[in-house]
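Limitations
The structure tokens in this dataset are predictions for the assembled complex, not deposited experimental models. Users should treat interface geometry with appropriate caution, especially where small molecules or nucleic acid strands are included. An illustrative entry is reproduced here so readers can see what is and is not provided.
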Amino acid sequence: MLLQLALMSLLALAGTGDGAKTSTHIRFYMHDIFTGLPGRPATAVRIARGTTPLPDDPRLRFGDMYAIDDLLTEGPDAASPALGRAKGFYIITSETKLDLMLTFNMVFTAGPYNGSTIAVMYRDLTTDKVRELPVVGGTGVFRGVTGYGLHRTQAFNVTNLNAVLKIDMYLRF
Ligand SMILES: *[C@@H]1O[C@H](CO)[C@@H](O)[C@H](O)[C@H]1NC(C)=O
Ligand SMILES: *[C@@H]1O[C@H](CO)[C@@H](O)[C@H](O)[C@H]1NC(C)=O
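Predicted assembly:
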């Protein structure tokens, strides 16, 4: 779809009050490869094992921690143009459901934000349709950035737990 190809549907508007600021919407997709597949190594790797198995999926436990280096792309297909990576970690913060805390940097390596990063820290209660991401800060063109993001599940495979997440960022910088 053209709109998706035009991915960084960026909407640069003059800021109100502060002439130096712009408001921008950036959309991209994050590929959380929990289980490696031929030609696609895992990009979410368990680095600490928790205690209580989750009732809905005993493969996962309260306290499990995963390091991530997830691909970010313009479209939902992993083969669509790459924009960067989400680098950080997440931890399961519930004994009863898949409720995560994520902390990572969105590291852009292509497109208009190449070389810049955005830091986020947020709760991902995976049963919620939309999860909100507070922006912690940024570097490069995003130095001093404020704003928020919305995280939605685009695709989730219950067998191998691989997910594609749709992320919309609403930023002022
Ligand atoms: C991103 O920036 C780096 C450093 O300036 C440059 O080497 C690289 O070619 C750029 N990548 C793209 C896809 O523009
Ligand atoms: C889900 O994962 C399983 C195991 O890797 C795979 O066989 C299946 O094709 C996947 N389903 C989809 C819709 O990709």
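Some entries come with short summary sentences. For this one: The first strand starts at residue 13 and ends at 14.
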